[in-house]
Design a protein that fits this description.
The protein has 281 residues and is an alpha/beta fold. It has ten helices and nine strands. Helices cover 38% and strands 12% of the residues. The longest helix is centred in the first third of the chain and has 28 residues.
Length: 281
Amino acid sequence: MKKLIRTVAMLSAFGALFLGFARAQEEKSTPATKPTLFIISDSTAKNGKDLGWGDHLANYFDSSKITIANRAIAGRSSRTFQNEGQWDKMLPLINSGDYVFIQWGHNDGGAPDMSPYRGSLPGLGEETKDIAAQKSGTETVHTYGWYMRKYINDTRSKKATPILLSLTVRDIWKDGKVERGSGRFSAWTAEIAKAEKVDFIDLTNIIADHFDKLGQEKVHTFYPKDHTHTSPEGAEMNASFVVAGLKGTYPDSPLIAYLSEKGKEVAAYKSEATYPPVMKK
């Protein structure tokens, strides 16, 4: 009887050892947690269901390999996404190996001290302006460049990769050519990317190149509401241009490996258009 008990105990111990070894091997073969691609922007990336390129971008990536998290909020600017606390809420969700697409500018051009109090100071410098806050006290407003650099630095502090995008294009035409950007924000974004050594997808010129070929009448069908916000069809097209720009500008980007079959079918594209140099004070 004692011999039988010892045999059973030995078998149990061997079984536990085998299960432990099997679990260790399974953990080694299990891939690491898939990365997340976050999107921070305004209504041009998220303006209700299927309105904005951010939601549509998920169609071009393999969800078994990467998660697309569209955190764009309509009406926000580089300033208000921070001072409303949205960025602080997002930061804990960003992990090492993640990516953050950063696109601001459509709502940054208003006067900083006038309703809806979302304009940033123009330029890339360190200038500030104290204004009366909407509720109480004062708010120190920074330049567009300062806010953008904070997004970049905060993302890097999480060992994640920031990627800047220039603006989507508005349905505004002159002499048969579509407007290339609202104000100087796309040019400033390009300059920031260069200075901070950050990847930059020139969405403005990529979209504008294609719109010029399509013509004003066709492009107008993508903007049923106004000259800024697209239909689902227009949003899908803009998302495809994000992928085209990524492939055309950074063919060796690690993000290429996460593309879905639909994403793989998108032709790479890099615009030949350039921005004028940004004058520094």
